[in-house]
Amino acid sequence: MALLKRGLSGEPVKILQAKLGVAADGKFGPGTEEALKAYQTQHGLAADGIAGPDTFAALGLPELILLTQGSKGETVKKLQTALGITADGAYGPGTAKAVEAFQAKNGLEADGMAGPVTLSKIDVFASMVTPDAVAKSQAGTVSPGAKPAEASVAGAPKKSIWQSITEFFS
C-alpha cells in the first residue's frame, strides 16, 4: 500500500509536508504526524496520523494516490463502483483483477495497481487526476548522496514518485 507515516522519508513526504504547511524536509517525524492528525480531524477523516488515499484525495494531492491490494477506504469504493464491481472499500484480488482488465482494455500497463495514470482514465477521477497530477506522480528523483535504500532505485526509470520512499531512523 502507498501510505505515508512516521519514520518514512522521501519526495512524497515533502509534498505532504508542503501541503500541510510544515517544514518540508522530507522526513515524516512527530511534527508532520501532529499536523496530519489535526488536518484529518478537521476534515472528518480517521485521525490516525497516516496518510493514505482518502487523505491524499482530501488534501488535493492526487499525484500521491496509489491504490494496491490492501488499500481501503472511500477512494477504493469509488474505484470499485466505477469499475462495476462490488464496492466494499477493500482493494483485494478481485479489485486488482478488475483494474488489470481495465488497464489492458485502455492500453495501459496491466499491473493491477491504480495510480494516477490509471485513475486519470476513469471518468469519476478524471477531474481530480489531471495530466499535471499524472506528471507530478512520475517526477520522483533520488538526490545525490542518497542512503543505500534510496540509491537502489537511482538507476531505475522513474515510474512513480513512490520509488523515493525509504525509512529513516532518528
UniProtKB/TrEMBL annotation:
Pfam families named among the record's database cross-references: PG_binding_1 (PF01471)
Domain (Peptidoglycan binding-like): residue spans on this chain: 22-59, 84-121
Top-level taxon of origin: Bacteria
Protein name listed in UniProt: Peptidoglycan-binding domain 1 protein
